[in-house]
Structures are given as C-alpha cells and as structure tokens.
Amino acid sequence: MITTHELAHLKIKEHNKAFYQLCQHIEPQYMQLEFDLRLYLTHLEHQASLACPIDA
Q1: pLDDT tens across 14-31, in order?
Q2: Which of 17, 24, 28, 38 has the most CB atoms lying inside 10 A of its own CB?
Q3: Which residue from 12, 1, 11 is spatially nearest to 37, judged by alpha carbons?
C-alpha cells in the first residue's frame, strides 16, 4: 500500500480523486489496505498512550 502510494506520487503530486483512482488502478485493494493501516496505527498509538500516559 505504501509502495503504491509513493509510486502514484511520481505521476500525481496532490492527494486528489485522480491520485486515489491511480492507486486503485495499481492496487485494487488499495482503499481497504489504507484503512487497515490507519486502524493499526491508531491501535498502536492507543496502546502507547496506555503504557506511558502523558500526565504521569
């Protein structure tokens, strides 16, 4: 997903409709993979905040 994203940037610089259409052309499951990655990173961020609270 990240490789697809960066390859698409070689042709289209902005994150616009054409950019995401190109991503899906390269990787048909791009949108699901991006969602899964964002969900995983949110999970890691939440876990880190539980392990080391900022207010401590």
Answers
A1: 999 999 999 999 999 999
A2: 24
A3: 1
| CA–CA distance, 37 with 18 (Å, rounded to integer) | 21
38 pLDDT exceeds 60?
Answer: yes
| CA atoms of 56 and 54, how far apart (whole Å) | 6
Checking 36-45 for CB contacts under 8 A at 24+ apart, the result is 37/1, 37/2
Evaluate if residue 3 carries a pLDDT over 90: yes
Is 26 exposed, middle or buried, given 0-12, 13-18 or 19+ CB atoms closer than 10 A?
middle
| pTM, two decimal places | 0.79
Q: Which residues contact 37 (CB under 8 A, 6 or more apart)?
A: 1, 2
